[in-house]
Amino acid sequence: MIRHKEQIFHKLHLLSFVISIQAYLYSTYINSAAAKLGLSFTGIGLINFFLSIAYAVASITLGHLGTKVGYKKMISILSAYLFFVSIIGFTADSPGRLVLFAILQGVFFGAFFPQVEGLIAKSERLLNIDPPSITGRFTLSWSTGNIIGVAFGPFLTVKAPLVIFTMGLIVSSLTSVLIYIDYKKQKDIIIFPPSKKLLEHSQNAAVVMNKQAMRRLRLEYRIILFLGGLIYTSVLASFPKLMMLERLRLENAGFLTVGANIGVLLTFVVLQSWKGWVGNELVCGLLLSVAPLTGLIAFFAKTPVMFFITALFAGLSYAVPYTFAIFYGLLSEEEDHGKQGALHEMVIGLLFGIGPLVGGLLFDKLGGNLGLLVYALSIGVVIYTVHYIFNSLNKKQS
C-alpha cells in the first residue's frame, strides 16, 4: 500500500496562485496604461467600472454553473476563453481597446474564481478539514499571487508589455488542458492527503452550526467588505497616476502599490493562525479600525515610504472584512458552495468598479491625498454604523 505524504496545500491552491498573478498583471496593465495615456482619475475609474460590471455579471450568471455542470469542466472552458482574451490584449494600446480588453478579461476572472472557491469548499469539507483552514489557505494562495502581479505589472507595462500577454497565453492554455485531464482522472473533487493540523477543529468554529448567526454575519460582512474594499480598489487604480503627479517613475509604481497586497497577505496569515475573531464581534470591530486609519495616513503620502504605508493599510481595510465575509459565506450550512462563491465574487467585482470611480471623482475634485482622506474617513463612519446596526439587531434577537 502506497502511503502519500500529508499536505497543507494542493494543486488548486497552486492554480489560484498562478491565475491571481495573471489577474493582477492584467489589472495593473490597464491602470498603468491608462495613466500612461494621460487619462484623468475619473477616466481610469470609468474603465475600472466597466470592468467591474462585467466581473459582477459573470460572477452571478456563470459563477455558479460549476455546481450544475462540474467545477473542473467550467475551469477548463473558461481557461480556453482566456486564451483568446489574451490575444486581444496585445492590441490594447488605446482608450477604446483598453476598455474592450478590461471588459473581456473581467468576464473571465468573475466567472473563474467562484469555480475554484466552490470546488475547494466542497472537496475539503468532505475531508472534514477545519472550516477556518479551508478559507484561510485559499486566501493565502491567491493573495501571494496578487503581490507578484501588482509589483511587476506597472514595470512590465512600461518595459515589456508583450510579456504580460504572452504569459496569459501560456497560463490559459496549460490550465485548460491540465484541468480537463485532472477531471478525467479524479472527477469533480480534489483528492489529497490532508495534514493532521488541518483536521484539528478550533472551538470557535462552532458558530458555523448556528444557521441564524451565519445568515446575519454573512450579510453584515459582505456589506462591510464592499465598503472596505472601496478604499483598497481606489488605491490600486489611482496610485500609478498619483505617483506620476508626485514625479515618481511609473514603472516603479507597482513596487509601492504592492504594499496593499502585502497588507492583504499579512492579514490572512495572522487571521488564519489566530482564530479568536470567529464569532467575536468586539474583536472584529476593533480590527475594522484600519479603514479610517488609511485616510489619515494617506493625507501625508508624499514620499515613497508613505505611499507604501498608505497602500499597506488600504490592503488591511480590504483583507479584514474579506476574511470574515468569505468565512461566513462559503461555509454556509444551507446554500450551495457555487452560489455562495458567485455572490461573494459579485461583491468583489462591484467594489473594483465603484471604488475607483467614486474615488477618482473625489481625487480629481479635492486632490489625491485630501480626496483619499475624505473618502476613507467617510467609509469608516459607514462601516461602524453598519456594524452597530447588526449588533443591535443581534442583541434584540437574543
From TrEMBL:
| Major facilitator superfamily (MFS) profile domain segment(s) | 8-398
Enumerate the UniProt keywords alphabetically.
Cell membrane, Membrane, Transmembrane, Transmembrane helix, Transport
Major location (coarse) = membrane
Gene Ontology, cellular component aspect: plasma membrane
Q: Cellular location of this protein? A: Cell membrane
Under the heading InterPro entries, the entry gives:
MFS, MFS_dom, MFS_trans_sf, MFS_Transporters
The entry's protein name is MFS transporter
Name the source organism.
Fervidobacterium islandicum
